[in-house]
Amino acid sequence: MNNEKWMKEAIKQAKKAAQKDEVPIGCVIVKDDQIIARAYNKREMKQCSTAHAEILAIEKACKKLGSWRLEDCDLYVTLEPCPMCSGAIIQSRIRNVIFGAYDPKGGCMGSNMNINDVRGFNHYPYIEGGILQDECSRLLKEFFKAKRKKK
Q1: CA 18 – CA 49 distance, rounded (Å)
Q2: pTM score of the predicted model
Q3: How many CA atoms lie within 13 A of 85 on its CB side?
């Protein structure tokens, strides 16, 4: 796995979100060393609470593969997945989850809780956080700093 290479692709997606005044979170899903889905946060654009980068990328990957099972896929996202996205990751059987910044308020893959500690699921992804963490965190901090200035 080339974690930094793929995280840089997720960061490109996060920057697209920021350009559209969305919280800058980006995601890519990789299978056989190729990106099969790209997405960024679109909650404001869609006015939909489930329009997180991970959910949108999972939907695209399922459509591309013609299957809800993403067993041989790796998900790269700039911010630690929330409870909803963590559940979708488990349900889609994603093999590896690699994230950039930790999210102590809402992260469910190590910060606030770790979804892999909950017993009884039929799938548990490998999780690794902190890949290009400084750059991923900086995108979020700069975005919210600019938002506060506008008020």
Answers
A1: 17
A2: 0.96
A3: 29
pLDDT at 92 over 70: yes
- Per-residue CA distances from 101 to 52, 59, 107, 151 (Å): 15, 23, 10, 26
Active site residues: 54
Residue pLDDT, tens place only, 31-49:
999 999 999 999 999 999 9
- Nearest C-alpha neighbor of 54 from the set 45, 42, 44: 42
Q: Which residues contact 148 (CB under 8 A, 6 or more apart)?
A: none
Distance CA 53, CA 146 (A): 21
- Virtual torsion, Cα 60, 62, 64, 65, nearest 10 deg: 160
Q: Distance between CA 78 and CA 24 in Å, rounded? A: 8
pLDDT at 49: 97
